[in-house]
Amino acid sequence: MTTMEEQIRSFIKSNLVVFAGDAVFTDDDNIFELGYVNSLFAMQMLSYIENEFALTVDNDDLVISNFATVTNIATLIRKIQGSQSA
Amino acid sequence: MRTAQEILQAAQAFAEEELRPQAGAFEAEEEIPREVIRRLAQQGFLAASFPVQYGGLALDPVEYGLFTEEIGKACNSMRELITVHTSLVGESLLRWGTPAQKEHWLPKMARGELLAAFALTEPDVGSDARGVRTTYVKTEEGFLLQGRKKWISFADIADLFLVIASDAQTGEVTAFLVERSQTGVSTTKMSGLLASKASHLAEIDLHDVVVPHENVLGRIGGGFSYIVNSALDHGRYSIAWAGVAIAQESLNAMATYARTRRQGGKLICEYDAVQALLADAHVQLQAARALCLSVGRLRKDKHHEAMIQTSIAKVFTSKMAMKVATDAVQVFGGNGFSNQYPVERLFREAKVLEIIEGTSQVLQPVIAQQVLRTCHHRGAEA
Ligand SMILES: Cc1cc2nc3c(=O)[nH]c(=O)nc-3n(C[C@H](O)[C@H](O)[C@H](O)COP(=O)(O)OP(=O)(O)OC[C@H]3O[C@@H](n4cnc5c(N)ncnc54)[C@H](O)[C@@H]3O)c2cc1C
């Protein structure tokens, strides 16, 4: 079974702007700082997360650091899932 | 409650009776009379995509696209009002507004009691929207805004502006809901335009404007990545359908003319070369419509590819509309040059679609990046 982290990683990988070869990044690398994203990426990732995990991210959680690493994204999703099912 | 089909029929009837016969006059007089806007609002057409709870007609993205086409075929400037009021500002409020903001603004917008405009562009900042120079400083009473916006559709008559500004210190971008009635806000109508003369374009001067804290839309500093990008995405979807609208109207005009104009003892539609123009326009238009419908379905499903596909549709349909409108002028010959015939206006109106909501040149790299990500043969890199 694919883990949440693997799902997120695969989405990010297929959306990074890399002209040659493949992007290499760990679950704790800041994907915005790697410079491989275009201006649409933040919104694309938000709609992917909301759709794929059937949740709504509050404005208060729309802090770029919450979306900067695979680990942070997974933590945010688990937090929202916890609060929305509570 | 009316079905989507009934709403689209009502939009078509409204366009037929109130807009198409007047569109040329609106442009000549450089305004859409408030009374016509009032009657449009009465039918709920300023809130076609809003949920019913806010006074909207709850059209889904595909239906809203078809609705945009109906209005856009008859009057590009009225379509422009719907683009900025409903798609750019309304959808932004729906997506990012607090419950209080939605309750306060959306029903008034739906009733047409207030018109909204989207204020991003400035005299020196266009494509590089991240670099807006209108600034804000946080104070106890609210946010102090300074700056100048330019090219803002309907700003001359709008009551509410969604203003994009940057933090004077950090450069972080934030979106503010600014009311015309606030001290320090003034507008100057723009004239001498190629088209969209009836779109009430204006410059907005913001001089020491204090915007209350509750008028921040979304998060402080989240204005570019989220608000601007999602607003422009809604705008691009609307513009994609505006391209279909202008092309369809141009094609209808050229087919009608070609069936009645005689030269050399024949109707001009009997000439192969004229038929080639008609056929090519039809083919291009069908492709554009299919693309817009497919994007509409992606948007309805909230698919994460919807944004990039919307940009593709916007680039394609705006170029297609320009080509079809140009060919329509060709079919009309000298008459195509006269404002006695609508193709002269359609030709001018088509051009703006390649410029607004991101020029074609600015969108192309984003599309190219998707090509490079998704279309290459794996393992073939040097
Ligand atoms: C009729 C009309 C209505 C409008 N309504 C609104 C509105 O309601 N609200 C609003 O905020 N704005 C509005 N605008 C402004 C519009 O969005 C801008 O004109 C547009 O974004 C382009 O910016 P610019 O005019 O400053 O051109 P520039 O950004 O100066 O571009 C000039 C040329 O350089 C090219 N260029 C610029 N940057 C790049 C790049 N990075 N790569 C390649 N090429 C580049 C462009 O493609 C273009 O060909 C409107 C404009 C018009 C004409």
Automatic annotation (TrEMBL), chain B:
Residues 221-371 form the Acyl-CoA dehydrogenase/oxidase C-terminal domain. Keywords: FAD, Flavoprotein, Oxidoreductase. Residues 117-209 form the Acyl-CoA oxidase/dehydrogenase middle domain. It comes from the Bacteria. Residues 4-113 form the Acyl-CoA dehydrogenase/oxidase N-terminal domain. The keyword Kinase does not apply. InterPro entries: Acyl-CoA_Oxase/DH_mid-dom (IPR006091), Acyl-CoA_Oxase/DH_mid-dom_sf (IPR046373), AcylCo_DH-like_C (IPR036250), AcylCo_DH/oxidase_C (IPR009075), AcylCoA_DH/ox_N (IPR013786), AcylCoA_DH/ox_N_sf (IPR037069), AcylCoA_DH/oxidase_NM_dom_sf (IPR009100). Its cofactor is FAD. PANTHER family: ACYL-COA DEHYDROGENASE (PTHR43884), ISOVALERYL-COA DEHYDROGENASE, MITOCHONDRIAL-RELATED (PTHR43884:SF12). Belongs to the acyl-CoA dehydrogenase family. This is Acyl-CoA dehydrogenase family protein. It comes from Tumebacillus amylolyticus.
